[in-house]
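Hi again,

Forgot to attach this to my earlier email, sorry! This is the prediction with NAP bound. I've pasted everything inline since the attachment limit keeps bouncing my files.
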Amino acid sequence: MSKRILIFGATGKQGGAVARELLSAFGGSATLYAVTRNSTSPAAQKLEQQGVNLVIGDMEDARPESTLKAAIADAKPTHVFLMSNEKVGTFSKGSFCTQELAAANRMLDFLEACGTVQYIAMSSVAGCHQGARYSMPNFKVKEDIEAALKSRGMKWTVLRLVTLMDNFVDKELGGLTRTSVTGLANNSAMEMWYVSCRDLGVAVATCFAKSSDTSCEYHGKTINLASQKLSGAEICSAYAKVIGAEAKVKYTPVMGPCLMSMGFIMPDFVAMHRYWEKVGYPIEAPDQEDFKELVPEPWTIEDYFRSLGDRIPM
Ligand SMILES: NC(=O)c1ccc[n+]([C@@H]2O[C@H](COP(=O)([O-])OP(=O)(O)OC[C@H]3O[C@@H](n4cnc5c(N)ncnc54)[C@H](OP(=O)(O)O)[C@@H]3O)[C@@H](O)[C@H]2O)c1
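Structure tokens for the complex follow:
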């Protein structure tokens, strides 16, 4: 049976890269569907032009008359890329986590009710199992969502992400100018693990390619996706190389010492930064082997910057 693949978040960083890689891997041999709240946005329009069918609805709409359930059922998906949407709470710890978990459970209900879904590849966060221990409700909720996925009757693979290279073009999480790189690490010497959304897309495409009506190679696996451990200084030098900058590129943290000292503002964000500083993502050698199996040629940070083409400030 030909695959009918439903992609959540397809107008954003993760889902957008998943859609691109699925289009490239399957071409016309699979039918793609993208969930969006807004069919007129430039990203949604572009997907439609590429032959992706739009499925309109809001994951957070909990009303019985929510149209998303019927729209998903109409698509009759066999394969699904699922992700949840985190909002950072201001002042109150974990304020949006109940909502995030409820939306994820609602989507699992909708997908189960279709009766057509064979396999779900879901993105999560590396280290989410340490969320409770290090007081990070935004990580703990990902662990809860993983448990919800595993409790259903559909086959699954969890792809746990480290910090996204793609944050560097997201104005809330980073920024690029001719002379500076803004990122989530707290200073230029601090090392963190990174992965590109393109590698997530390749991993999802591999999982789906290796599944059929009778077998599913990666069912039941939880895999950390991490391609490079880098300091801010190394990221700046890769960026300088790609843009051919003569001048030195300076690293600027999103959360400088002043914001970090005000733990009462965005407490989830601050707790996550402390975790990165003190503990770091739990990436070990076996993770690297699993990752390379799914993504044989992962992108380096330099590959990622090159991929931006015209979007790099010149
Ligand atoms: N940034 C990182 O380093 C990092 C690392 C690991 C995990 N994560 C996780 O990644 C997730 C965010 O992914 P992203 O960076 O790809 O997000 P993004 O670029 O901000 O895009 C969000 C996507 O989700 C869709 N969306 C948002 N709310 C929706 C709703 N209520 N109903 C339906 N669709 C909705 C948007 O679609 P429309 O606007 O078209 O409706 C858009 O396609 C978060 O859960 C975060 O915890 C991030």
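Residues 97-114 form the longest helix (18 residues). The radius of gyration is 19 Å.

That should be everything now.

G.
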